[in-house]
Amino acid sequence: MLRILLAAAALLIAAPAAASDAADVMVPIRAFVAAIDKGDLAAAAAAHVDAPSIIDDFPPHHWSGAGAFASWGADYGKDAQASGATGGRLTMHKVRRIKLEGDSAYAVVPTDYSYKIHGKRVVERGTIVYALTRTPAGWRIASWAFSW
């Protein structure tokens, strides 16, 4: 009986901790999305590790290593200018999955990307999958991929 009570107590203690960890994992993701929506690439970059890996739907499609976020931002700007896209915004929906394992996390977040082309609104209904790493400064995005 004592083992059952101890196991039940452990579950009650672990559940809030797991919920807190999941909320902590979402901090850099929410910061990244908010910064992108403000056009603040420096703040968006701060949500990442120093050498992230990024996959997106415009060329060259993959950026990695030191300077990857800055390169992605420059290529994003070139692609938006070439296509006439303005006013880009990300809209996150209910998180589909968060998996925590030590100092690593995985999150699947349905996220729409909307923008205007020649005044007409376009919405790419997609998902961003994130891999995160716990650093001394907190969780940071190590990698993400957008798909629609």
Please outline the helices and strands.
Elements: H1 2-38, H2 41-46, E1 48-55, E2 62-64, H3 68-83, E3 85-92, E4 97-101, E5 104-117, E6 120-135, E7 138-147
Parallel strand pairs: 1-7
Antiparallel strand pairs: 1-2, 3-5, 4-5, 5-6, 6-7
Q: What structural category characterises the helix and strand content?
A: alpha+beta
Strand content: 35-45%
What is the distance, rounded to the nearest whole angstrom, between the alpha carbons of the first and last residues?
52 Å
Shape: globular
Highest-level CATH class:
Alpha Beta
SSE string, helices as H and strands as E: HHEEHEEEEE
User: What profile does the largest beta sheet have?
Assistant: 7 strands, mixed
Which fold name fills CATH's third level, the topology?
Answer: Nuclear Transport Factor 2, Chain: A
